[in-house]
């Protein structure tokens, strides 16, 4: 989750005001619209591989929405192979927090009908795009659910729906494991680097603080 959530877990005076301000101002990684789809047949095109779709070449056509200009990542969500169990796939399309910010103040069960209409429109647009650009994946598929930046905020704990926590970028100093509170360390993919590798790197840095960085490096070199 975003390190900014850490601020609500510690006493007000436990951290310097400048450090608190820096944690609150950390920029997140990009958010997304995520389409979950099911298909009655096994999709061989996604067997052992993923699909990256670039901008649609059909610019100006009646079906071509603004979402068609964004890159699209499609991956299988089940192995399939059993006739009684539908196969499925997941499509991830970059999105901005501002696209759903208008509904961010309401709880999940109290959002306006136009928020549901947005999700239905996103599902229809992405499904239609995949049917046209990758018919071997889209044909016979049906939308099951859609996630938005708000979904990622509500269920993954990212304040602006970031997919991978805090953004690694030039000019932004992401937090290190050690803080002013003895025995407490910030660890996870939202600090040192994004993703699974980022979580492992962050854990390595934290272990260095616990056992000594030189000791840890010697242990690693001994395993070469």
Describe this structure in words.
This protein has 224 residues and is an alpha+beta fold. It contains 6 helices and 5 strands, in the order αββββααβααα. It has a 5-stranded antiparallel β-sheet with strand order 2-3-4-1-5. Helix 5 (195-211) crosses helix 6 (213-221). The longest helix has 21 residues, at 113-133. The radius of gyration is 21 Å and the shape is globular. The mean pLDDT is 85.
Q: Tell me the fraction of residues in β-strands, as a range.
A: 5-15%
Number of helices: 6
Rough shape?
Answer: globular
Report the average pLDDT across residues: 85
SS-based structural class?
Answer: alpha+beta
Summarize the model shown:
The chain is an alpha+beta fold and 224 residues long. The chain is built from six helices and five strands, in the order αββββααβααα. The longest helix is centred in the middle third of the chain and has 21 residues, at 113-133.
Short descriptors:
single chain, 224 residues, alpha+beta, 5-stranded antiparallel β-sheet, 5 strands
How would the blueprint of this fold be written?
Blueprint (H helix, E strand, L loop, with lengths): L16 H8 L6 E9 L11 E3 L18 E5 L10 E9 L17 H21 L1 H4 L2 E7 L1 H8 L38 H17 L1 H9 L3
Antiparallel strand pairs: 1-4, 1-5, 2-3, 3-4
Helix pairs in contact: 5-6
């Amino acid at each position: 989750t975003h390190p900014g959530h850490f601020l609500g877990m510690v006493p007000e005076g436990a951290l310097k005001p400048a450090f608190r301000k820096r944690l609150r101002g950390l920029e997140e990684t990009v958010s997304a619209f995520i389409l979950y789809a099911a298909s009655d047949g096994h999709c061989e095109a996604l067997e052992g591989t993923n699909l990256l779709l670039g901008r649609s070449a059909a610019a100006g056509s009646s079906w071509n929405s603004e979402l068609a200009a964004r890159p699209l990542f499609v991956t299988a969500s089940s192995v399939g192979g059993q006739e009684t169990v539908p196969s499925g796939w997941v499509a991830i399309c970059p999105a901005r927090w501002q696209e759903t910010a208008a509904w961010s103040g309401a709880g999940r069960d109290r959002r306006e009908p136009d928020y549901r209409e947005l999700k239905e429109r996103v599902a229809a647009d992405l499904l239609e795009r995949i049917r046209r650009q990758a018919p071997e994946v889209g044909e016979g598929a049906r939308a099951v659910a859609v996630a938005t930046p708000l979904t990622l905020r509500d269920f993954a704990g990212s304040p602006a729906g970031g997919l991978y926590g805090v953004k690694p970028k030039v000019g932004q100093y992401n937090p290190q494991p050690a803080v002013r509170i003895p025995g407490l360390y910030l660890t996870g993919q939202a600090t040192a680097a994004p993703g699974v590798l980022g979580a492992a790197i962050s854990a390595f840095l934290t272990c260095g603080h616990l056992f000594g960085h030189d000791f840890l490096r010697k242990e690693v070199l001994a395993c070469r």
